[in-house]
Amino acid sequence: MADLPLDSAPTLPAAGGAREYVRIENVTKRFGDVTAVDDVSLSVMKGEIFCLLGGSGCGKTTLLRMLAGFETPTSGRILIDGQDMAGTPPYERPVNMMFQSYALFPHMTVEKNVAFGLEQERLARPEIERRVGEMLEIVRLGEFARRKPHQLSGGQRQRVALARALVKRPKLLLLDEPLGALDRKLREHTQFELLGLQQQLGVTFIVVTHDQEEAMTLATRIGVMDRGGIVQVGRPSEVYEFPQSRFVADFIGSVNLFEGRLVEDEPDHVRIRCAELAHLVHVDHGISSAPDATVWVAIRPEKIELSRERPAGDQNIERGVVRDVAYLGDASVYLVQLDGGRSVRVRLPNVERHASDRVARDEAVWIRWHPSSPVVLTQ
Ligand code: ATP
């Protein structure tokens, strides 16, 4: 599972070919006493799908609205294609925004909805018809051109909103929770469609979402936000496998976190004493931290092995009892209570079809992880 984002995410333009398209420089936005966006600096490359990911109220939408020109930064600068956007109204920016609600006109047909922006620009009728026709083909809605929004499914409405945003050929498309209104199956389908469209049209996308799966599938890079700031930027596989803080480790995916102290710190390995574990944690790489420093060991549930027999070796092995099992179809998640009382989540693929072959609740088990699996965090 951990490899999926790496394989499915589109790649950035080759090194050297990447060109900065959006530059956010020390942008802060205050509403009275509330600092919604706090000193954010960020570059987005041309042709990227950049996802701003964070919990409710962390400032994602405010940042997006400042890019679109609906809000003005309290301080800092926003440059798009090298041009400072200060004083440029939304309609003069090379930007279009697709809203969470899609905001379609209910009384207009699909083609009228898509044509609306071009009519505002007073383009010639044949030009409008040609561009709307083309765009409806791209989002595969040609046969629905005469329907009204209430005669469409959620996914089709989402594609109308997308067509309406793209028909104006923006260089930068901002999407606020684009898949929020869709059910799971449709979301997966639409995510891949969105990727295909992006590659076909070469638009730069900035997507706001609180859903890490959405970000993982779509993004070339993810910017994780917390309390108005960007706390980590990286490719999906980087933020998942190499989180730089407990917040990111915990926010992206599921993680077991143990507080401990460094008792041995060598260039090629460290040992950490955690009060909740019976044995020292052995990690096969060094970290740069003060001796005896407090650190946190983060281990993903899919990186822990579970067995009825004691595994071979003498490192990173703990004993416990299975207290709960969640069967998810492709995998099961086991809640293992260790001898010291602490519970650990272990995720295993369901290779065997028969439940009798799998470890069950109340069984005594051993868990083990490879010394390369833990991430050691200092903040
Ligand atoms: P969500 O995922 O819930 O939409 P978000 O990350 O998009 O959240 P924002 O909408 O950017 O968050 O809001 C960030 C903070 O700024 C919140 O505390 C919010 O209450 C506050 N805020 C946003 N807009 C305004 C406003 N116009 N006036 C006052 N406070 C605001």
Short description:
The chain has 2 domains: 20-94 and 170-248, Rossmann fold (3-Layer(aba) Sandwich), CATH 3.40.50; 255-377, Nucleic acid-binding proteins (OB fold (Dihydrolipoamide Acetyltransferase, E2P)), CATH 2.40.50.
Question: Overview of this structure, please?
Answer:
23% of the residues lie in helices and 34% in strands. By secondary structure, it is an alpha+beta fold. The chain has two domains: 20-94 and 170-248, 3-Layer(aba) Sandwich (Rossmann fold); 255-377, Nucleic acid-binding proteins (OB fold (Dihydrolipoamide Acetyltransferase, E2P)). Strands 6-7-8-3-9-10 form a six-stranded mixed beta sheet, with helices on both faces. Strands 13-12-11-14-20 form a five-stranded antiparallel beta sheet. Helix 3 (110-120) packs across helix 4, helix 3 (110-120) runs parallel beside helix 5 (154-166) and helix 4 packs across helix 5. The radius of gyration is 25 Å and the shape is globular. Residues 31, 34, 36, 54, 56-62, 210 line the site of adenosine-5'-triphosphate.
